[in-house]
Amino acid sequence: MTAAVLQSYHMTVRDLRAFIRQPFYLVATLVQPVIWLLLFGKLFAPLMEDTHTTDSYIGFLTPGIIAMTALFASGWSGMVFVVEMEQGTLNRFLVTPVRRGALITGRLIHQALSVVLQGLIILAIALATGARFPGGVPIMVVFLVCVALIAVAFASLSNALGLVTRSQESVISIAQFLVLPLAFLSSTFVPRRVMPDWMSTIAGGNPVNWLVEIGRQTLDDSVDWSFVATHGAGLLAVALGCAWLSTLAFRVYQKQA
Questions:
Q1: Which intervals hold domain ABC transmembrane type-2 (predicted)?
Q2: Which of 130, 134, 157, 190 reaches 20 to 30 Å from 177, CA-CA?
Q3: How many structural domains compose the chain?
Q4: In the structure, what pLDDT confidence band is assigned to residue 12 with cuts at 50, 70 and 90?
C-alpha cells in the first residue's frame, strides 16, 4: 500500500513538472471560460436581473463556467496516454516495477489539481468583476472538491478512450461530443425552473448539473448541507465508477501491447 501511494505521488509530480514547464497551456485553457464569464455575464445580466431570475448573474454563472472548464480541461487527459503510446514511453513503464494503478492515479491527481487551480483563478476573476459568494469558505472548499471529482470522472473516461482507441482524433471528437450536451443540459446558464420541462428532467440526472447546483449554494447565506451531501456523494460514485472503467481499459491495453 505504501509503495502504491509513493509511486502515485511520483507519477503526479512527474505530470505536474510537465504542467509547470508549459504555463501557456494554463493560459490557453482559461481564455475561453474567461470570455464566457465576462461576455455572457455582461450580455445577459440585465435580462436575468431585471426579470428577478437572479440577483447577480456573474455570481450565478461562475459555478457553471468552472464546471465547463473542468470538463474541457479533463477531456484532453487521454491525449497524454496516446502520445506516450506513440513515443513508446508507456510500454517502457510497463517493464518497470511501478504499479499499473499508479500510472493512472498519478494522472488523475494531476488533472484534479490543475482544474482546482483553474477554478480558483476563475473565482478570483469573478470576485474582481463584482460577484459575491455569501455562502462562505466551507461550501466553497466543498465545491472545489466536487470540481476535482468531476475532473477525475471525465479524465478517467478520456484516459479509457485513449487507451482503447489509441487515436488522438477519437479522443478529441468523442470528448467534444460529450462536453457540450452535458454543459447545456444543465443549469449552467439559466435556473432549472425556467428551462423546458424535458431539459429540466434531464438536468436532474446530469452529474454536471449536480456540480453546478452545489456551486450555487455558495450564493446563499444558508447552505443546504443535506442537498450538498447527497449530490456530492453522487459525484463521488460517478468518479469511482469512471476510474474503474479507466482501469479496465488499461488492462485491455496491456493485453494488446
A1: 24-253
A2: 190
A3: 1
A4: confident
